[in-house]
Specification:
The protein has 9 helices and 14 strands. The protein has 309 residues and is of the alpha/beta class. α1 crosses α4. The longest helix is centred in the N-terminal third of the chain and has 28 residues.
Amino acid sequence: MIRPDHDDLRALLAVVRERSFTRAAAQLGTSQSALSRTIAGLEAQIGVRLLNRTTRAVAPTPEGERLAQGVAPHFAAIDAAVDALGESLARPSGLVRLTVDEGSAETVVWPGLRRILRAWPEISVEVLVDNGLVDIVAAGLDAGVRSGDILARDMVAVPIGPDLRMVVVATPAFCAGRDLPRHPRDLAAHPCINFRLPTRGGIYAWEFSRGREALRMRVEGPLTVNTLALAAQAMRDDLGFAFLPESGVTADIAAGRLIQVLDDWCEPYPGYHLYYPSRAHVSPALRVVIDGLRWRPAHSVSTEGGRTP
């Protein structure tokens, strides 16, 4: 069978959709008589009647309906691809609203946004810092940033940073005279800075793993906080061990200002991802933000954030 011309199939779809040669011809920018000849030629080429015509109405035959339903999704996909290309060629502008957690805000989000906002002055971005896992659809947001191990599976996720690691640290003054922990269970004998979870209000259990072994430790101590910054400050004021993003304490560990313990129990986990609901209908402005924050290891300086418990 000779393959029908795509324009002839589009003509059939228009008539089936409109149930009228007159309306379909107007939509296609042609005459009613020319459209009628196109359909007649298509029927002759396929060898089956596709439309039933009367002086008052037109309706697809079962074969015509089946053909229309079969080709319609493919034309819709073609139209969507052409529309997406047109949007990408237009100058992106408008507001993009993001939810980010405390650990990612300064380490991976802001360095990228700084470049984006300088390069695209027509784009504005609203950044909402929230340590909970936000339902961006319910909140009316465009996208969110969280570590890759806690993202909902129905979200599109784009990596925007390297793998992360949390570490256990304390000051030399606090560690002086103590038997330092060699196993996560040893933390039970030491004061620790607790972190209250932002979503359900519970106390975060410190997560450790080594090889196939994984542990969640409930720690005790003089202080419970709900921000990493305050946990770090309390630790620096000699109040106990803290479980913090490695990136924020690497220099202090190297300089001897902080002591790290349980290093072999602190394994990396998936880094920060930008997540959004669907690949369809992404605005040009959001597309710029996605592309600008996307992690490119071969061309990027490694910047680590931390898992917000």
